[in-house]
Amino acid sequence: MIRDTSAQDRVIQASPRRRRYIGAALAMAVLAALGAGLPSLQRLFSSDGSISESRLGFAVVERGPFVRDVSGEGKVVAANSPTLYAASGGAVTLLVKAGDTVTKGQVLARLDSPELKARLAQEQSNADAMRADVLRTEVEARTQSAALQSAWENANIDMKTAQNDLDRQTQAFKAGAVAGMQVDHARDTLEKARITLTHAAAGRGLKEDSLKFDVRAKQAAFERQQFIVRDLQRQVEELAMRSPVDGQVGQLFVAERATVAKDAQLLSVIDLSALEVQMQVAESFARELAIGMPGEISGNGRAWRGLISSVSPEVVNNEVAARLRFDTPNGAAAPEQLRQNQRLSVRVLLDRRENVLAVRRGSFADEGGGRHAYVVRDGMAEKIPVRLGARSLDKVEVLDGLKPGDRVVVSGADAFRGAERVALSR
What we know:
The protein is α+β, with helices and mostly antiparallel strands. The protein has 4 helices and 22 strands.
């Protein structure tokens, strides 16, 4: 049995000339390798470390348009969403369901209030009684005014009669037909008639004023009662809850035939012609938002122009709520295909400038306050001081320290540990 091939091996002796050729080739290969790797070795020895490029992110400094905007997700909300409240206590009868389309003035629910209707009937009866009282007072005033007029006229006639009698007695006395006593009596009778006429005229004026005051008082009481009746009629009419706007029934707060108290919430109506989009903006951008800023709203495969209509003064969870209204031509209504609470994409333009030196935004803009950046030159990442300006979602403005074409490490620079020069390996 053959255990191995040792019996078949034969040692070949190399010639001295072949050995020299092999040694020279090896020496040349070593020298070539050293020459090719010399720059890399020089960079390695002159740097504070070495990092693989695959662990870093790079961007080139460029000059061009610079747009600062805020984008995010928003939801459709109704700018006008009135809520109907119970005008009086009673049982509710709902005539619509949530989601129904309604028109302005349409009856949405009815309240049954027997107490209010009974009070209206009672006050109406009081008003009718006061009306009759006013008419009766007017008749009495006319009757008494006629009696006063008659008394004044009689007194006037009596005075004229006494005057005529005095004239006759005076003439007869001059003719010697009567005694002077009769003339004096006639004169006294005339004076008495004159006094009676004066009192009758004064009494007629005072009584007529008193009658007028009585009639006016009755009329004022009647008018006051009419106001009460009209107010109750208004309250009874408000038992039929009508839609204040054209829109859609939102939420129902009560069940059918439920008994509610006065001012209880019944239902809400959404005005679909006045929709807005609400978005949450980070607190850092909120101070730059202003009413009237342009924006873009997109969804359902379409896009609409928008304008900021309001910015909340309150910060909640490091965010501020902002609302955009649709910038429709000639004040047209909002798009009809949108619904409340629908999600849409929103973008608000904060600033736009041309010919701005900028670089893609990365962690370098936030680390160390953005005062340094690593620029790649000849395979080395060199730390240089920079001054950065405005920031957008994807770019940051360069004010000083960089020039167009510079290749900057925008992410992963934390691995440099603040070194001044770092060699980059592939």
